[in-house]
Fold each of these.
Amino acid sequence: MAHVFQVTVDSPTPHDLADWWAEALGWTREPSDEAFIRRMVDAGHAQESDTTEHRGELVWREGAAIRHPDEPAAPRVLFQLVPEPKTVKNRVHLDVRVGADQQEAELARLLGMGARELHRGRQGPSSWITIADPEGNELCLS
């Protein structure tokens, strides 16, 4: 039996990090349903404190999600609010496959967006560049 899943990333600033990853991957941020949020608050199913504004839009405070723009059934990435910053190495990370001929250009683009290069690796014919997003979450460009 196949299962549908999402990858969840803890973040003290989930909306900002979702924006960064959406731009980094060329994905889209899931739109906020402001009318639904307002109905939930008005009906007492949520409180104003459960919401916030992000770039002029009413959103749920607890998180934001992104997904592939052309494959709506593909797994999504959810950025979930946590109070603390990242402090240790990730046990799971994303490998973003850009192709060997695009690694340096993609590295330069992501560094320009606030990423940091951590190290470079090679195994046989395969090579990768490990970087960190603005909150320190590791990802590899391969």
Amino acid sequence: MAHKIVFFDIDGTLLDQNKRLPIGARKAIQELKERKIPIVIATGRAPFMFKPLLMDLGIDSFISFNGQFVSCQNERIYENPIDLEVLERLVSQSKDGDHPMVFLNEDEGRTTHDRHPHVTKSMDDLKLSYPLHDPEFYKRRPIYQALLYCEKGEKELAYRSTYNDFDFIRWHRYSMDVLPKYGSKAIGIQKMIDHLGYLKEDVVAFGDGLNDLEMLEFAGTGVAMGNGKEEAKRSADFVTKAVDDDGIRYGLKKLDLIT
């Protein structure tokens, strides 16, 4: 059996557009487990957002916040919180522009706006509840990722040009992930395989989005979903079928990781 370790993005990769796990994907993951091939979640989500999925699939290792918080077999092995001083400057600018923010740590999220339609829409699309209102939350807890609600255009460009300490990754029409500069799922994967003793060529990674580009390029074998962004497909070694067309199972079979 090949000495492989498999990393899966969640949204658009394991979960379809309705945030459901296809039966074929579930069976494929079970077969990987039966073959003793390690499985790791690699997502932009916060851990509390996908804990039910981990429990459902019996997975105990993950890369969250696009690489800023890594846990291996229920042990924290890497953390990279956002610098508080720089975050305070961004919060101040977002207030001036009336752009909501959501602050995320491993356990919970809080928002600067009690009710805002853009935050509501994005959370509804993720099938998540609206975060509690606490504009000062970021001052009391380490923040690994923030969400900035600003549509494409000049205002987005203003944020990008002002903050060299952040990477802004658009994941929704209304929202961007805010991450420490150069943080990525690829860095999280490197931390994980160093901890477990795997090599880069052992890594198989499945993804679909803009926040998966570094991961797909880094992996020994990067697999883009058929429903993925064109940039993800160009970054991958091959493109499998869409998530709702049994893409996970098809891709794993092509790699001879399952039968």
Amino acid sequence: MKRPISNWILAFLLFAGLTVHLYAAPYDPPTWRDSTWDFRSEDSVDIKPEISWPKAAGVGTLTLSAYAAAYIFVFAEGWWDNDSSHFHFENDFDYALNLDKFGHFAAGVILGESFYEGYRWAGLSEFRSYLFAGLSAMATHIAIDVKDGYSPAWGFSIFDVLSGTLGGFLPMAERYVPVFKYVDLKWSYWINSTAYYDKNNHRGEAVFTDDYPNQTFWASFKPYRLLPSAAQKYYPSWLAIAAGISVDDAIIKNKGHAHREVYLALDYDLEAFRPQSRWARTLIKYLNYFKLPAPAIQVYPKFNWFLLYPIEF
């Protein structure tokens, strides 16, 4: 049995809290060396680190408030309250055909981005902000799974922690590892099958982040950035090609053999629009983690096509 409450809810609350300051942030001049090729890079002369303790205190307060709200309104209902067990581990690597590990990874990404924005706003250097953001995402996942380790139904999952930790360090990788200039990792969700809600709704346990048949995780490639300069003028800089993975609803219905599903789709590289103000860059950065509807084909385990996947007409 797997816990019905996902880290995504916690990540959303943290994201909402840590990004409030963006609306009051001053306008940043267009100092990027080349925002088409290195979306995250700042001017070669980095902003001098100067920690503002009032801002740091504000980030800490918002973080603790988000954690408290997540526990009171979400986790207290889904976690065990009275029953407990000795601390134990759980090997859940094959749960949901591994798709839940992509979910933990995605939750780590949102945590990492949100912590980065908070640390950077408080005055830490760019590198330290990325580093501490990844470590904070890791600590969050460890804390959640330690709690699960005492649950009679679940257990501490090292694979969940590893997935969330890798996600937490993805923003840092996107800044410093060149390959991430050419690929984005994204997520999409749309309710096409009600199997999960039909099974869980009567118990009040239905949470969309555990509705795996309606989720798809994507690797979105940017051909424009790979083309020679002479050919780039003939290819739209915003047009990307994505490969996605999901599972069919047999994994919920327990009828027949569940399969992974593989998709190929067109996609949009929102970074190609080159926003220059800080708030616009941050907004695009978050939006680019979500796969927007676009034409797609399913290539496994059967062939099918969609006008605006994940929406099925």
